[in-house]
Amino acid sequence: MDIDARTTFGGIIFIFLLALVVLEIIWSWRKDKKVYNTKDTLANLGIFAGFQLTKILFFGFQYAIMANLSKFALFPMESSMWVFLISFLAVDFVYYWYHRLSHKIKLLWAFHLVHHSSLFMNLTVSYRLNWLSALLTPFVVAPLILIGLPFEFVAASFGLNLLYQFFLHTEAVGKLGFIEGILATPSAHRVHHGSDKQYIDKNFGGVFMVWDRIFGSYQPETTRPTYGITTGFISNNPFVLVFKAFVDYFKGKMDYKG
């Protein structure tokens, strides 16, 4: 796919996601759900804009790291549909552990805090992503590239994993029956964003929830979660939200969970 085609495709995806946000806002207003707050949503949009900028700034860094790692692959695999499916599954497995460790290791939590900082759950919250997280991604997926999975497949799978998670950040979708506990669902991800005692450090899966089942971190939604971190509201300033946890980390004051 050439650059023009990627740009067109990306534009179509953006318009589609924006349309879903608008529909969710209408749903929230008509049903009086109050899942949107103006200042919170503006903060989300500010963080989203910064994240898109850093994606461009760090693209060369990410590409160079992954391309060079592929030169040392132990068992280089040829590109095929099956290899892509293996890459997608492997990326989700690695994402599970990266996500879980991001709630356990304080330095990784400094990157991840911004995603849990909102007191609301809506589609725009999905893009509360740290502007510096692109610096970590190549190293997170490095083992898969060193094994021999094509780095282009690994990068694409990681991107699709994050895209899938956009649809999980909503209260407009209830429980989905037998799918719960197999795939990540809005219900399962609402639990993950809960700061309630029974919900903390649960449901880390990006696309598949089976990893949580296997490794004992699965928790079904039993009551409506209280969103945010355990210490409550932080700020509506995107810069504060992105960098607060780093400041707290270096001050040794990171005593909150999300």
Automatic annotation (TrEMBL):
Taxonomic classification, please?
Bacteria, Pseudomonadati, Bacteroidota, Flavobacteriia, Flavobacteriales
The highest taxon in the source lineage is Bacteria
Single GO BP term: lipid biosynthetic process
Provide the protein's localization.
Answer: Endomembrane system
Q: What is this protein called?
A: Sterol desaturase/sphingolipid hydroxylase, fatty acid hydroxylase superfamily
Q: How the protein sits in the membrane?
A: Multi-pass membrane protein
Keyword Oxidoreductase found: yes
The answer on whether this UniProt entry bears the keyword Oxidoreductase reads yes
Q: Name one Pfam family in it.
A: FA_hydroxylase
Q: Name one GO molecular function term.
A: iron ion binding
Record's InterPro entries? Answer: Fatty_acid_hydroxylase (IPR006694), Sterol_desaturase/TMEM195 (IPR051689)
Per the record, the major location class is: membrane
| Domain Fatty acid hydroxylase, chain residue ranges per copy | 84-217
